[in-house]
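User: Can you help me understand a structure? I only have the sequence.
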Amino acid sequence: MSSHIGFLGLGLMGEPIALNLARAGVPLLVWNRTPERTEPLHAAGATVAATADDVFADSEIVIAMLAHAEAIDEVLGRRTPRFTALMRDRTFVHMGTTAPAYSAALGAEIAAAGGAYVEAPVSGSRVPAQRGELAGMVAGKPADVARVRPLLQHVCSEVVECGAVPNALTTKLAVNIFLITLVTGLAESFHFAAKSGLDLAAFARVLDSGPMASAVSRLKLDKLLRQDYSAQAALADVLQNNVLVREAAAASGIATPLIETCRDLFAEATQLAIGAEDMVGVVHAHESRTAALHNAARQNEEER
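Assistant: Let's start by predicting it. Here is the structure, written out as tokens:
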């Protein structure tokens, strides 16, 4: 067996994570559905595989940062004989965000196939990923987590052990409630300031120097001021996270009124804008609702 570490999925988050591993000297064997996305990894010293199966054939540990559960199932050949062949004697590391129940079922199936499973979702967007400053969460059997943890040190400023599967993903969803409501509130605050005719530079100075300031608020407020919607965490992905949180909460009988409001706003913004825009694009939903209020008021005035 080769000493390669496999890596599947080089999207918005997968690429910077894999690049940090490669630059740290980890012998990566990478695959991506779109081959062009592998070019920066090849330039950084990683080996590029022609297929996902080739990654499993030549790696004992395979990390996946894939878009959603359906992509994972397809790549792994879940519920087919191929799945068992790929998973046997491998440690599969799930770094993406899926429903905790999905993760628990996947982990059980991997164990039945003779493999090991570790959840390792991360908190943070593309910029912290590029800097190797993500917050990592891991769950799984202690021996499996110990095997994977040294790799995560190259991409995370801190790695927190969360116990058994699916506790890491449940923790990720809990953290995402705060992130999503924080950025949605910031967008609404910015929209209110802009529509009220305030000096936005002064508004930003107050926020940045006050007790609510954070790395997230400074980064996202700067994007709002510059109307820079290039994605660090895409609208469509955040909407998907909203849905995952709501479904997990509903299954457990937990009230999440704020995330339900955010889900509606992100759904509107995703329809109004390109889903690949950054999550600060949720402000498009605020702008649309304000425009609707003004239109309704104008129509009422005309009808008088």
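Now, to help you interpret it: The radius of gyration is 21 Å. The CA atoms of residues 115 and 163 lie 19 Å apart. Let me know which part you'd like to focus on.
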